[in-house]
Design goal:
Chain lengths: 115, 112
Amino acid sequence: DGGITQSPKYLFRKEGQNVTLSCEQNLNHDAMYWYRQDPGQGLRLIYYSQIVNDFQKGDIAEGYSVSREKKESFPLTVTSAQKNPTAFYLCASDGGGGYSNQPQHFGDGTRLSIL
Amino acid sequence: AQSVAQPEDQVNVAEGNPLTVKCTYSVSGNPYLFWYVQYPNRGLQFLLKYITGDNLVKGSYGFEAEFNKSQTSFHLKKPSALVSDSALYFCAVRDTGNQFYFGTGTSLTVIP
C-alpha cells in the first residue's frame, strides 16, 4: 500500500545533540512537508519542499534543517540550536501545486523528547 | 491574514446523538476545505473535502460537512455519534497560493 513512513516512532535527544527524523513516501508525490504539533497549538509548518533539491522555510524553521536529495525522502534534523524540541513531528506529502484540490497525506509521526 | 478557527477546544456528545464540530476560515479567493481526524499517537487521516459544487459533502465513517460561503464556515457533522468517533479533529484550508492552514483542533469525546 502507498503511504508515508516515519521513523523512529519515539526518539530521545541529549543536550547538545543533533537528531534526524526520517520520512519516506511511496506515493510519487512532488511536495513534502514537516509539521510540529504541540498540545493546543495545532500544526505548525517547519519546512516544505515542492521539488527535489529545493525546500523553503516554514513558520518555525529556526533550529531545524532538511534535505531533499530524492523525491521519496525528506529527512528533518533537529539541531542543538532548537532549545525546546519536545513535540510530536508529522511528515506529510501531496501532489504539489497542480493538485491543490487534493488532501495532504500524513505519516504516523515521531515523538521527540529530551533526556 | 489567512486563518482557520475552531472555536471549541472540546466537544462532548452522548452516543447516538448528532455531533457538530465547528470551523470558520478567513482566506482570500475560493479556498479548498478539508477535515482530518487524529487518534492518539497517530498521524492525521483525511475525512472529507469541499472543492466546489454541492454545499453538503459526505466523507468517511458517516461524516459530512456543510460549506457556507456567506458565513465562511465548514462545520463537520454526523447524525449519530459513536464512542469510536472520540478523537481530535482538524479543519484545514488550502488557499489559491497552495498554502495549507490548519485549525488548532477540537477534541471530541463521545460519552457511552
